[in-house]
Amino acid sequence: MVRASVNELWLRINSLLRHEQLDRDLEDELAYHLDRRVQKNLEAGMKAQEAFC
Question: Is pTM beyond 0.70 here?
């Protein structure tokens, strides 16, 4: 239990110190998933404008 609390505290401190990198990582992850969704929509026959909405 104490170990879990220490681990959680470490993760929170680390995220505060590395927030810019974590923000970039999150943006990259979201962009990847959006791109995949658009690609699947295009493959399913949607028009380009519809696929991006």
Answer: no
* Farthest-apart Cα atoms in the chain, separation: 54
- Number of structural domains the chain divides into: 1
The b/e string for 16-51 (b: 16+ C-beta within 10 A; e otherwise) is eeeeeeeeeeeeeeeeeeeeeebeebeeeeeeeeeb
Q: What is the pLDDT of residues 7-48, one digit of tens each?
A: 899 988 888 888 888 899 999 999 999 999 999 999 999 999
Question: Token pair for residue 4?
Answer: 């879990």
Q: Which domain holds residue 41?
A: 19-53
**What type of residue sits at position 27?**
E
Answer whether residue 14 is part of any domain. Answer: no
Q: Look at residue 12 and tell me if it is in a domain.
A: no
